[in-house]
Each structure stands twice: as structure tokens, then as C-alpha cells.
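Co-fold these.
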Amino acid sequence: NAGVTQTPKFQVLKTGQSMTLQCAQDMNHEYMSWYRQDPGMGLRLIHYSVGAGITDQGEVPNGYNVSRSTTEDFPLRLLSAAPSQTSVYFCASRPGLASNTIYFGEGSWLTVV
Amino acid sequence: RKEVEQDPGPFNVPEGATVAFNCTYSNSASQSFFWYRQDCRKEPKLLMSVYSSGNEDGRFTAQLNRASQYISLLIRDSKLSDSATYLCVVRGYGNNRLAFGKGNQVVVIP
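Predicted complex below.
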């Protein structure tokens, strides 16, 4: 059972660089989302998607782009990395908007220097 | 006021003891409540949903107090493996957004 797969697990970026965090799920879930988790802040929603071709902004979308060309994949792009984007990123999915159980990926630890 | 508030702790608990902690929420129209468990450097995983009448799952008991707008989690007979951060998650009425608390860190001491 693969579930939600995120890559890379660890990444160090220089300020100004761009990169993409990959996320894939094999559960045919409609709803996918990206969160960041910072010390003392809890999980904050960056972007989400309710289905292929549909994306929307969460609480903290600035500096990030997403796309949802297929049901399975939901990549998160950092356009020009900043030290404030140093965080742990979690991709998550659930069967639909009404579903309460969230399935998280294992997380991606990103450091921007 | 933050949407979901938790005392981060840590809650240091002797092995075998009982520990309880609360989570308060600000939106009185919130409809669904959950506890997630997050181990160090791991992803959160659903521990249990919280029902209006309260519910148990083994050594874990969850309660909801709508009048005072808080949910609680009680762990009986604590095990070393219970050491983790427990995240409170609240879902609002009429929307599908989930709000996360910062978590209660529990450390079970031998």
C-alpha cells in the first residue's frame, strides 16, 4: 500500500532557487492538499485541489504554485525560495471534501539558506 | 483568538499513569472533531474521531463539550509508545476546511 508518496524527503536550497515537491497518491482520492508545519505554528494549508484541473489557495499560498493535471499527482512548486519557506511540508489526500480522514505523506524537510 | 488552541506542553507522564489534555475551538458552529497523533519527524495519523456523547478506543477516551467549546483526550495506563504529539483537528460547519491545533506533546517517562 503506497498511499501518499512525497519526494524528496530532504532538500537544501539556496535563496532564489526554484524546486518542485512531488506528491502522488494511489487511492483515487479527489481531494489533495499541501500543508507546511513550523514550530509553534501547527499545520497550515498552502493549496488544495478538489479534483483534476481544479486548484485553490489555502491560508499561506504566497510563493507557491500547484497544478493538478491528473487525479494522482499534485506537485508543489516553490518559485523563488526564501529562508521563510524553511519548513516541513506534508502532502495529504482524502476521498472527498466530506471525508474526515486525511492521509498524509511522510513529509519533506526543506531548508532554504 | 486562534481557531484551535492547545497547550503544547510537554506533558511528562510516568509510565502507567493517566494524562488528560484539552483543546479549545473558537467557532461555535464547528461540526466535526478529531485527534491525530504525530510521532517525532513523522506524518500525523488519525487517532480517533470525537463524538458528541464521548467515545473510547482502548485506553483512549475523547470527550466533546460544546457549551464550553473544547474537546479532551484522556490516556489511561500510559505506555512508553504513547509518547507523541497529539493534534486537535476541527472542521467547521458548511465548509470542508480542517483547522489544526499546534499539538499537545506527551512524554511518557519510565
